[in-house]
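tool=predict chain=A
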Amino acid sequence: MRAAEYVNHDAVGLAELVAEGELTAAELQAAALEATQAVDPQVNAVVETWPADDEPKPGSTPLAGVPFLIKDIGAAMAGRRMELGSRLAAGHVARADSFLVLRLRRAGLVTFGRTATSEMAYSITTEPVLYGATRNPWNLERSAGGSSGGAGAAVAAGVVPLAHGTDAAGSLRVPAAYNGLFGLKPTRGRVSMGPDFDELFSGLAVPGSVSRTVRDSAALLDQISGPEPGDPYFAQRPSRPYTDEVTRHPGRLRIGVLSQAWGGRRTTAPVADALSRTAGLLESLGHQVEEAEVGLGADWEEYVLANAHLFTANLAATVDELAAAFGRPIDSSTLEPATLAGYHYGQQVSGAQFVAALTIRNRVSRSLARYFDTYDILLTPTAPELPTPLGAYAENARTLDGLGWIDTVFDRSPFTMPFNMAGTPAMSVPLTADAETGLPIGMQFAAGYGLESRLFRLAGQLEQASPWSARIPTVWAGNRTGH
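tool=predict ok
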């Protein structure tokens, strides 16, 4: 199979071809490597590839034999580098598989490389000094989002049909929106973070994926979800596989719409127009749609401050551990300006301030939970603006302290983070594009704790009603040079 044919199938479709004996996993990997070589010099999404493991048994799972990429953070694979997009961790090799990677192996996915991330997953753009900027396949002068920007660009350009990512503040959903993909942040406790961690970023971060079809993300979540020994908590198992939910009718849903973000950031005209069209589509499908007022349970300023304390204190601990392990200095030779500023800020966060931040996290969780007693779904834009130009964050990073950096990131991505604080599932769906630039626009749908099934049912309905698979970016492995 050549790349031009390979990109016409999603992951479930490729696995079916392997199960039927029409192709082998090795042939699929060869096609994936051909696709990588065709497009990655332009988008810079894949930082390393390696020979695949032994071929999985065909048909053993709905994803057996499918080429796969893991992010350069959050998925430790024994004997492979995981450098967190940082010069401080350059050359780090994982000693053992994380529980997530063990589940990826059991799913029969053929992991052959890792994708770019912003340094320490600490930005919503992927422009690390270590490996350089990842470019958006729809417009090479634009950001692919972050921190899972490498995953987003790789999937959008046709390297793989789905890829691993993590999400602590929108790091899956923003790249999904910027790259015209489906991306779902699961419920906190849905996927184990063990054995090295019980939580990442104090429960703000969770693993997930970006994909070109809804059923691929559903199939992957079926394979990686569920508790592991020692997990401090876990989300209740669904009553049926998520892949079954994709084709089930969602029923008539009560959907509240939040058009302007918390904190006062105004949604730009192209995104506001896309939101209006999405609301109209939902009404045409029989759903009850109305404007909603949704409180965070905290003032925006104290909410941002709480996040700054949680993010930077966790960052400081990670940086100290890496510096000690590698014997490297903590300065501008090893860390980028935003990360270094966050580190210094985090060093000053007291234990009392950290506990107070967890109290804010609880207040946000309780407030959003009450909202989901009234509405089945909350609809917002995923991001308030189109994909940002590369370099847009660089100047700010040189002048801001740790709190200022968090404030800047949240100003650019105000809709996503509350659902990380609340631990509830949320997805970005690529329902439309900007008429003038052709850039994709993602719409975010959030549901109550543990209700990924509801999101998958709605996503499946939307994919049928307003398909996005025919829209392909300028850089596309199916034709090497794009169109």
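The longest helix spans residues 300-326. The first strand starts at residue 46 and ends at 49.
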